[in-house]
């Protein structure tokens, strides 16, 4: 039997060691720590106020926009990494290919930019206008 | 001093982890890992001391001389702290979140070369693997934040994830520029190309004037990816208490902290590998003064890469007390409208430089 490790085998050993460390840490702490729960301790921490409702609610749509734009560019970068290792041997042709490829995506970025999807939508404060007493006298 | 270190270096040069039998490797690795993790917790001590000196304070002074044992005391304290899981939390996600965070940060260390022969796994896709596995952090943060069922935690987690995935783009393109300069993704090959008798002049940063642009882009993005100031709104103490780890106590909190300091060292190491030659000595050979030859070797390699890593960690800590925190819309503006276009410019310039100029 071959007893040496391949490279990804070593990565797997690291994975196991990481898990052993976390689980070992939790178990050690479990042996040492006290456990005296009470309703106050188990309540959600909200700076001393009683929590109102659950935190699992809909959150702002703008985070999805960020995620969508991210996925597009991330996939692009994934494709460019293998290219980066060989483009010097392939020369000019590979350069132009990659520029066309990146160019289309930059065009997408420009489109999203012009459409305003890259702007972080700031909530507009709704400040009611009040008539100021004695404004005319000034 | 240097001769004894060189003798040690030569003795160690035959050591290659990948060639050892599996059982022996694991037995040898366990104490090493725990020593490394303990060293990592000294990041906390370092940060407290550096912050203190920058603010004209003394920092931790009580435990041991100059508070040097403070970290040990912190670990012992955190081990004894009660583990509180609030009753409305998603127990599974809450427990698994810190674990995923830590394992993600820890796995990246598998490809970190500490010297010519001292590397966990010299993958031929090492660099790609490193930036990929560090991104696992996002899953951990989201699990921790969502599992807590706490509004602060959820807000912190979502801000953090949005920030990390956004800055991943300029960071990845900047690293891509480094990979293009090297023409390989293997960590050791990238460093070997930056090693030579002229020391630091062989580093990509000094070989290629364009390299400064991806270097700066990656440094700024790495601050955001590790949630460091000025990009620390996910943990903004003044508004979100502590961000995604608001509900965590005891050992789980410690694990999250370890993961944070681990990824801080990781991004610092990546930046020094890609642009500053990793374990390659910065000292040049000057005539009879063969400074480069004297300061090269396995132990010196570990010394140089750790020093370069510490240097960048020091800058990260320094920036925390220098720059004010960015607002969330400024953060997104900087990422998508400044860094990403500049990263593409760097990409095109590097490609053109490599094909036509070099």
Question: Which architecture name of chain A does CATH use?
Answer: Up-down Bundle
Question: How many domains, in number, for the residues of chain B?
Answer: 1
Largest interface: A-B, 71 and 86 residues
Rg of chain B (C-alpha, Å)? 21 Å
Number of beta strands of chain B: 2
- Please, what is the average pLDDT of chain B? 80
Low-confidence stretches of chain A are none
What kind of sheet is the major sheet of chain B? 2 strands, antiparallel
Strand content of chain B: under 5%
The N- and C-terminal alpha carbons of chain A lie at a distance of 96 Å
- Proportion of residues in helical segments of chain A: 55-70%
Taken together, the total number of domains of chain A comes to 1
Which of globular, elongated, flat, extended, rod-shaped describes the shape of chain A?
A: flat
Question: What spatial order of strands do you see in the largest sheet of chain B?
Answer: 1-2
What keyword list fits this structure?
heterodimer, A: 138 residues, mainly alpha, Methane Monooxygenase Hydroxylase, Chain G, domain 1, 4 helices, B: 358 residues, two-stranded antiparallel sheet, 66% helix, 1% strand, globular, disordered N terminus
Structure commentary:
The complex is a heterodimer of chains A (138) and B (358). The longest helix of chain A has 29 residues, at 62-90. In chain A, 60% of the residues lie in helices and 0% in strands. The mean pLDDT of chain A is 79. Chain A contains 4 helices and no strands. Chain B contains 15 helices and 2 strands. The model of chain B is unreliable at 1-18 (pLDDT under 50). Chain B is an all-alpha fold and 358 residues long. Chain B has one domain. In chain B, β1 (285-286) and β2 form a beta hairpin. In chain B, α10 (212-225) packs antiparallel against α15. The interface between A and B is large, with 71 and 86 residues.
């Amino acid at each position: 039997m071959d007893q040496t490790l391949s490279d990804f085998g070593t990565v797997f050993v690291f994975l196991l060691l990481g898990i052993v460390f976390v689980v070992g840490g939790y178990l050690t702490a479990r042996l040492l720590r006290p456990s005296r729960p009470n309703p106050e301790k188990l309540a959600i921490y909200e700076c001393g106020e009683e929590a109102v409702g659950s935190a699992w609610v809909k959150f702002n749509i703008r985070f999805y926009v960020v995620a969508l734009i991210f996925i597009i560019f991330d996939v692009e970068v994934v494709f460019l990494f293998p290219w980066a290792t060989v483009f010097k041997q392939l020369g000019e042709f590979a350069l132009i290919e990659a520029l066309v490829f990146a160019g289309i995506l930059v065009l997408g970025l420009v489109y999203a930019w012009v459409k305003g999807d890259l702007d972080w939508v700031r909530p507009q404060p709704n400040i009611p206008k009040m008539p100021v007493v004695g404004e005319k006298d000034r | 001093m240097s001769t004894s270190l060189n003798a040690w270096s030569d003795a160690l040069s035959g050591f290659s982890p990948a060639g050892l039998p599996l059982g022996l490797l694991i037995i040898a690795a366990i104490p090493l890992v725990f020593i490394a993790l303990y060293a990592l917790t000294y990041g906390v001590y370092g940060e407290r001391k550096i912050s203190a000196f920058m603010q004209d304070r003394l920092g931790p002074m009580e435990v041991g001389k100059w508070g040097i044992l403070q970290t040990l005391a912190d670990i012992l304290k955190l081990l004894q702290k009660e583990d509180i899981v609030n009753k409305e939390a998603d127990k599974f996600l809450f427990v698994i979140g810190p674990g995923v965070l830590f394992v993600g940060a820890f796995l990246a260390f598998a490809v970190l070369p500490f010297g010519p022969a001292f590397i966990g796994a010299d993958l031929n896709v090492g660099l790609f693997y490193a930036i990929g596995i560090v991104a696992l952090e996002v899953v951990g943060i989201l699990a921790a934040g969502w599992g807590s069922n706490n509004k602060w935690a959820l807000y912190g987690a979502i801000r953090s994830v949005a920030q990390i995935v956004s800055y991943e783009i300029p960071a990845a393109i900047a690293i891509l520029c480094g990979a293009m300069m090297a023409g390989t993704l293997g960590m050791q090959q990238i460093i070997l190309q930056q090693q030579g008798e002229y020391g630091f002049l062989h580093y990509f940063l000094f070989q290629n004037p364009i390299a400064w642009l991806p270097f700066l882009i990656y440094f700024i993005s790495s601050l955001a990816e590790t949630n460091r100031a000025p990009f620390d709104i996910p943990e903004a103490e003044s508004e979100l208490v502590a961000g995604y780890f608001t509900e965590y106590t005891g050992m789980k909190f410690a694990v999250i902290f370890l993961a944070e300091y681990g990824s801080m060292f990781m991004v610092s190491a990546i930046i020094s590998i890609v642009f500053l030659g990793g374990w390659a000595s910065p000292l040049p050979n000057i005539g009879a003064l063969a400074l480069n030859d004297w300061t090269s070797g396995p132990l010196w390699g570990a010394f140089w890469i750790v020093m370069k890593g510490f240097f960048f960690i020091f800058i990260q800590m320094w920036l925390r007390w220098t720059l004010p925190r960015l607002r969330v819309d400024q953060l997104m503006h900087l990422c998508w409208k400044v860094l990403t276009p500049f990263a593409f410019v760097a990409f095109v310039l590097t490609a053109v430089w490599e094909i036509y100029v070099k």
